[in-house]
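FAQ: What does the model actually see?

It sees only this:
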Amino acid sequence: MAIDIGIAKKDRETVAKHLSKLLADTYSLYLKTHSFHWNVTGPQFNSLHTMFEVQYNELWTAADEVAERIRILDVFAPGSYSQFGKLTSIKEEAGVPEWKDMVAQLVEGHEIAAATARDTIKAADTAGDEGTADMVTGRLKEHEKTAWMLRSLLK
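And it is asked to produce this:
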């Protein structure tokens, strides 16, 4: 059955490409945050271990929401590490940095995801896709807030 939600196929595909980048950033940030949760050490261990858990759970839920929005637009969502690796702007961390570097990397990751969200909102606005713009605005606010909270630990 053909989809007819008031957004042209070309526009849906354009928005889905932006959402796919946001999904890749979200999933990559989820994986990094979860790894840091497992491996953090130092005097801030308890608070960071707990904070990272809250953050990776939020990112996990967000990844599902973004992927489902791509499907709502009748486009298949990326779902492999190789696809995410090509789409994301989040740098992978192969080692176990000190806690301050973990926090700094997560700040950077949330700022990158916020920038991706802003680009996605612009594409959604151009396409007349209020549903995507609304959802991604929430994601933008969450990434900005998380970056601020993490950044505050480094001052």
